[in-house]
């Protein structure tokens, strides 16, 4: 959002633009644009995943979002490792 002043009056300009994502290559996850096994979490650090998720949900994803489709056992493994890395 840009701002400028004219005659002691603030005028706010809206520079809203739409974002379009290109199609993901075959063999890559259609949600995050990375290569991973279907039982693994999406790549939360992927710019494609962040943009797509934000367009759908209005906020940026976190690792819990990336793991939402995983089994409880897989979530436990990833949560443990992410805590070691202080990512969660």
Q: What's this, in brief?
A:
This protein has 88 residues and is of the alpha+beta class.
Task: Provide structural commentary.
There is one protein chain. By secondary structure, the chain is of the alpha+beta class. It is built from three helices and two strands. The chain has helices at 47-57, 63-66, 72-84; strands at residues 2-6, 9-13. The chain has a two-stranded antiparallel ribbon with strand order 1-2. The two termini are 31 Å apart. The model is unreliable at 4-14 (pLDDT under 50).
Low-confidence stretches: 4-14
Largest sheet: 2 strands, antiparallel
Q: What string, H for helix and E for strand, traces the elements in order? A: EEHHH
When the domains are counted, the total is: 1
Q: Span between N and C termini?
A: 31 Å
- Shape assignment: globular
The side-by-side strand order for the widest beta sheet comes to: 1-2
Give the helix/strand layout.
Blueprint: E1 2-6, E2 9-13, H1 47-57, H2 63-66, H3 72-84
Descriptors for this entry?
88 residues; alpha+beta; two-stranded antiparallel ribbon; 11% strand; globular
């Amino acid at each position: 959002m840009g701002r400028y002043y004219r005659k002691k009056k603030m005028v706010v300009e809206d520079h809203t633009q739409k974002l379009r994502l290109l199609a993901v290559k075959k063999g890559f996850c259609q949600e995050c644009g990375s290569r991973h096994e279907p039982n693994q979490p999406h790549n939360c650090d992927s710019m494609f995943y962040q943009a797509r998720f934000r367009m759908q949900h209005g906020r940026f994803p976190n690792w819990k979002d990336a793991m939402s489709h995983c089994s409880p056992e897989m979530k436990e493994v990833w949560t443990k490792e992410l805590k070691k890395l202080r990512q969660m």
